[in-house]
Design goal:
The structure holds 2 protein chains of 2 kinds. By secondary structure, chain A is α/β, with parallel strands linked by helices. Chain A has helices at about 15-25, 70-85, 90-100, 110-120, 170-185, 215-230, 240-245, 250-260, 285-305; strands at about 30-40, 45-50, 60-65, 100-105, 185-195, 200, 235-240, 265-270. In chain A, helix 6 links the parallel strand 6 (about 200) and strand 7. Classes of the chains: A alpha/beta, B alpha+beta.
Chain lengths: ~300, ~100
């Protein structure tokens, strides 16, 4: 049961998927497990739907683990899933959010890569799709979205860790999310978890011009960073992908924003300055706790500012 | 299972655009097999790079000869990976 799942340690994909079932069972009044597709190696892509009922309600999308080696993101997503479910009916903010909106949470966006990091190569970041004409495997799924695809900040070399793929949405993991969001039709926020750099970013990355909603996104991101800092004094830098890191084409939040999802943000979680993305397990829960505070700030704003 | 014995992760702090360009150039040199965990992007924003054991002396020599400020984030990556694996196994055992 959920009581035996240790949220303060890293888990195999099987263990995570088993816990999704347990969560859906233990909180069956608001949590449902849905399969939105399958990976290149035919593993299911599961989202948890948090909902208090009704069809086609406005919703928030949250994913983690699109870069498989960033283990703290999948682990944080699991803790956050439990937190959302537990807070409903107990925390006024989460309760009012779920009374108005649904949340879709994809804790392992790249299951093939995640399994590969457990079995073969802990440093693996990409998908596991075969590349025609190359011995090198995999595509960077965060360069594969239809947003300035093929532009600066992504590689056309299949052997590169930032290989963009042969075409936008070539990766079934990416296309499954795109199809789900298009079919849903009322996603109001697109939030994605990465590690590590302690950044909170908004569009754009494929170009260095300001987004139309720059002021609102910047203010909201700063408020979220303030919330993140409030618990363990972890400081996040805020800005557009291009200004904060570098020009990077084909990223998920650029696609979601151009698709019309105004509240599109990417989190880069905690950097202790000692372990890179090999964050020790005792950091999982503090990381998840502070991330959840930041996410809540954004979600509350989304709830209160429909568009 | 791929092993990373002797691989080091360095944190490099570029002082200016020129140093960033040099690091970006280093990134394009495929034979060095560098894995940039964090890319060189802006002065004062550190870049983290994993270096295979056999390339560590060469890369360090390059950095030192060009006056880069750097520190060792991870001295032996395999040690950290082994610890991570051991922690997971212990946790699983405890849960059972």
């Amino acid at each position: 049961s959920t009581a035996t799942f240790n949220y303060g340690t890293y888990h195999s994909l099987d263990s995570i998927y088993a816990e999704l079932d347990h969560l859906a069972s233990a909180f069956n009044n608001i949590v449902r497990k849905i399969q939105i597709g399958e990976s290149y190696e035919k593993r299911p892509l599961f989202v948890l739907k948090f909902s208090t009922g009704g069809r086609k309600r406005p919703a928030i999308w949250l994913d983690a683990g699109i870069h498989s080696r960033e283990w703290v993101t999948q682990a944080s997503a699991m803790w956050i899933a439990k937190q959302i479910a537990s807070e409903y009916g107990n925390d006024p903010s989460t309760t009012s959010l779920l009374n108005k909106m649904d949340i879709f949470l994809l804790p392992v966006a790249n299951p093939d890569g995640y399994v590969f990091t457990h079995t073969t190569n802990r440093m693996w970041r990409k998908t596991r799709s075969r590349n025609k004409g190359s011995l090198c495997v995999g595509v960077d799924p965060n360069r594969n979205w239809d947003a300035g695809f093929g532009g600066p900040g992504a590689s056309n070399n299949p052997c590169s860790d930032s290989y963009r793929g042969p075409r936008a949405n070539s990766e079934v993991e990416v296309k499954s999310i795109v199809d789900f969001i298009r079919n849903h039709g009322n996603i109001q926020a697109f939030l994605t978890l990465h590690s590590y750099s302690q950044l909170l970013m908004y569009p754009y990355g494929y170009k260095c011009t300001q987004a139309a909603d720059y002021d609102e996104l910047d203010n909201l991101a700063r408020a979220a960073a303030y919330s993140i800092r409030s618990i363990y004094d972890t400081t996040f830098k805020v800005g557009s992908i291009c200004k904060t890191i570098y020009q990077a084409s084909g990223s998920s939040i650029d696609w979601s924003y151009d698709y019309g999802i105004k509240y599109s943000f990417a989190f880069e979680l905690r950097d202790t300055g000692r372990f890179g993305f090999l964050l020790p397990a005792n950091q999982i829960i503090p990381t998840a706790e502070e991330t959840w505070l930041g996410l809540k700030t954004i979600m509350e704003h989304v709830r209160d500012n429909p568009y | 299972l791929e092993t990373y014995v002797g691989h080091q992760v360095l944190r490099i702090k570029p002082k200016n655009e020129e140093e960033i360009k040099k690091l970006q150039h280093l990134e394009t040199m495929g034979h060095l097999e560098l894995d940039f965990w964090k890319n060189p992007t802006a002065p004062s924003f550190p870049a983290d790079v994993r270096i295979p054991a056999k390339r560590v002396p060469l890369v360090k020599a390059f950095l030192e000869s060009h006056g880069f400020e750097y520190s060792v984030l991870i001295k032996d990556l395999q040690v950290v990976l082994d610890k991570e694996k051991q922690d997971m196994a212990q946790s699983l055992q405890k849960d059972r």
